[in-house]
Amino acid sequence: FNLEMYEKEGAIKHLAKALKAKKSVSLLIDQSVSSSDGQVVQFFGHRATQVSSAAQLARKYDAAIIPVFLHNEDDDHYVLRFEEEILVQRSEDAKKDIRKATQKQSDIIQKLIEKEPDHWFWCHKRWKNEMPEIYSDL
User: Fold this and answer.
1) Which pLDDT band holds residue 67 (cuts at 50, 70, 90)?
2) Given 72, 75, 96, 134, which is the most exposed site by the fewest CB atoms within 10 A?
């Protein structure tokens, strides 16, 4: 499929190189990460950490953030949904610009889940850094 995949460690270097070469990149951003690897956002009324790499890269390389979601119609048919571009501001406060763009990404994910909750299947602990007490140690 002409894809290059990278592990989390060192991925930013590869993504930056691709963006400089005007290539498209894709990131899975709905994962819980440590606060040093992302941003704290509001998600369903609770604090959660989220990857901020897309916002950081978009701001630095003037790249577009286009949210894309895979929707299954049935067992054999899938539809890719493209949402409106998320614009990343380029003010003098880079941290604020990245935080706002990361929150916008979280908001889009939440709205889609609220619209079609049957398609939400999360296989990881989304709030593990902010609310570890809600998870069982089973």
Assistant:
1) very high
2) 75
